[in-house]
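Hey,
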Amino acid sequence: MSEFEIVAREDFSDVTYLLEVRHPQMAKAAKPGQFVIVMLNPHGERIPLTIADYNRERGTITLVIQAVGKTTQQMRQECRVGTKLFGMVGPMGIPSPISHAKKVMCVGGGLGVAPVFPQARGFKEAGAYVIGVLGFRNKDLVFWDEKFREACDELIICTNDGSVGIKGLITDGIAQALAKHDDIDEVVAIGPPVMMKACADATRARKIKTMVSVNPIMVDGTGMCGGCRVKVGDTVKFACVDGPDFDGHLVDFDDLMSRLRRYTPDEKKAHERWSEHCRMTQPSATDAPKPRGDDGLDLPDPAEEVLGG
């Protein structure tokens, strides 16, 4: 199997980091909305990560990752410029269609900001008026705001504490945009399931086309394992081959969030084993991700975070 060199890295926070990986063929083929499956080493697990950006001239793809589990924390520790990923398969999934909409709202929450960027840029290049709505917990977690300013005609940034932009949830930014514009043709929302559900609820009454990108449990990425099934209306879809984009007004978000929580205890055990038996590769106390949540787990609620990317 080929190895894929990491040519750039940037840390946005104590848990969120960017890796730029050299893969000329994938960079040439990649389109907005697609993802890759990555293996850190020959014995590592396969994890799906959304392609946050790609550069055909440099021959690279960009991944923005959140260190929420054993493998993503290990990658945060070991992936440096000059090191290599053991395996990377893709681009996978159906590319997000860039429609002929004249006015589009692109919504990104937390780590969902990264994968919504190629879509915002794609709509802008297609001639649409693009409104960007980005949500973060505070100003220290904000990233790519300058890239969005270049790709958007308007940009609304929301933070929970009001440290930058407007104070409130991302739904407050959506409400502000909807109040100002009564001619929005389409909304694209990527982020935690609870955020995408709220976005779909906000646009439902006005019957605005709303597409969401889901990231359920995924193993093989070919539709064989069935782990990534998602209820969409009266049908069951597989996110890896039928998605990851679906009509947000039809997705059963309650079922999706329930499935995401199913493996939290197993992920916790895997992280504990890694912490216990791989002390030589553990980050220092100052470098380690900060504990999160009130339940004693180092892992955030998967229904409220974007897993992997």
